[in-house]
């Protein structure tokens, strides 16, 4: 019997919550799909008996943040892991990590394992270790080996081996310090047919911890069960900020439509799933297959969302109608920039700006909410390109906009560019988050970039909100309410939510949020300065906040 413990380190920075960074909000956790896939594949295919357990420290850290105990997180992680090690007595501990921000946690976790029992084999996999294997093995002395890319087949070979050291030395996907020293470059060992992976065992996770990733805020307060699926793996593109090829490769492999339908029906019937999160990296690689799959899902009676970003060029009225019939309520669009120069020459993305508006209008025609992802601060991007992006956002009328700062993720072309040109201002992986910039690029002011990202979202989502401008207050309200729930001191959120409620005839709610907005503006000069800079005359809701009669029409007019 081989006992294998999977550990997921947090992928968000505890310091942001200890120091109470203004725009820090706990991320929504996604079901650890890769580990579930490995667990079920190994159970079905290993000759040796295997027992597996999973601990997701994102769940632990979230609880610590909510309890105000995050400053003690490292000691608590060590104690929790030591307790599990004592109880489970694993032969192997595998750490799975996607992003740079998990690096510091990995160092301390493997040290805790080795301090408990130095004979335990410690391995790592996922996007971060796959791309940064040499650096991680150098800087994590307690880490024995790293797996390149997907782990199902390499782990099966390792677990079944009579001599595991030999596998770690010779197998193409495994790399050790000795392998790095002799110049070994690890390679992928993929499962070509995704149907070969048995149905996942969701019993090893508590699904209630993975139920807040939904992007359609109409349903934010309703009971729901979210579950994720990857109907394909891989992406042929090489967008500058993406590290996907280092994990899943550029050849797209698919799950059959029948298998997808079987899995979704099982999620619905056995686990009560009501929202299916389709998390493919490139769902429309085969557009005809995508359309057939949407048609097949239409009869299952579940709501679908695409939170990862879908290819804009693939969306036309036929696809938008198929989305609607399949129960798709919201789609995130992978736009990234409103400048053709940035899209084509910097990101290397096969998208023309002129295709964006028809896609958004097609989605709106069939009642599908559209979100948009923007990445700012890439090398070569100028102020004029960011202005083009702002104008595109205001013109196209997305239901919600997310603006992120470029992060040089290990394994991406952006990381290589930044290293080669000396653009990395901070080598601290804790800083590699989407709300701050770690890049020092000639001609770019990091603080101005951070202000651009935040204030562009304020302007597009609140000050010049498309749905408010077009009288669609019922669409705007759930999004603004969600912001106010997450950030109770968001003055503009309360202010514009009050205006939406007033225009919708919900006077009591309008009064409440107007009063909250005015109280925040009064005590917080940061919000007053922001309002002044963007021409927001928040005093126009004074009569409403005081409970005096106010004109809903006046409140609904833009600032």
From TrEMBL:
<dbReference type="Pfam" id="PF02310">
    <property type="entry name" value="B12-binding"/>
</dbReference>
<feature type="domain" description="Radical SAM core">
    <location>
        <begin position="221"/>
        <end position="459"/>
    </location>
</feature>
<keyword id="KW-0479">Metal-binding</keyword>
<dbReference type="InterPro" id="IPR007197">
    <property type="entry name" value="rSAM"/>
</dbReference>
<protein>
    <submittedName>
        <fullName>Radical SAM superfamily enzyme YgiQ (UPF0313 family)</fullName>
    </submittedName>
</protein>
<dbReference type="InterPro" id="IPR034466">
    <property type="entry name" value="Methyltransferase_Class_B"/>
</dbReference>
<dbReference type="InterPro" id="IPR011990">
    <property type="entry name" value="TPR-like_helical_dom_sf"/>
</dbReference>
<feature type="domain" description="B12-binding">
    <location>
        <begin position="18"/>
        <end position="169"/>
    </location>
</feature>
<keyword id="KW-0949">S-adenosyl-L-methionine</keyword>
<dbReference type="InterPro" id="IPR006158">
    <property type="entry name" value="Cobalamin-bd"/>
</dbReference>
<keyword id="KW-0411">Iron-sulfur</keyword>
<dbReference type="InterPro" id="IPR058240">
    <property type="entry name" value="rSAM_sf"/>
</dbReference>
<dbReference type="InterPro" id="IPR051198">
    <property type="entry name" value="BchE-like"/>
</dbReference>
<keyword id="KW-0408">Iron</keyword>
<dbReference type="Pfam" id="PF04055">
    <property type="entry name" value="Radical_SAM"/>
</dbReference>
<dbReference type="GO" id="GO:0051539">
    <property type="term" value="F:4 iron, 4 sulfur cluster binding"/>
</dbReference>
<dbReference type="GO" id="GO:0046872">
    <property type="term" value="F:metal ion binding"/>
</dbReference>
<dbReference type="InterPro" id="IPR023404">
    <property type="entry name" value="rSAM_horseshoe"/>
</dbReference>
<dbReference type="GO" id="GO:0031419">
    <property type="term" value="F:cobalamin binding"/>
</dbReference>
<dbReference type="GO" id="GO:0003824">
    <property type="term" value="F:catalytic activity"/>
</dbReference>
<dbReference type="InterPro" id="IPR006638">
    <property type="entry name" value="Elp3/MiaA/NifB-like_rSAM"/>
</dbReference>
<dbReference type="InterPro" id="IPR036724">
    <property type="entry name" value="Cobalamin-bd_sf"/>
</dbReference>
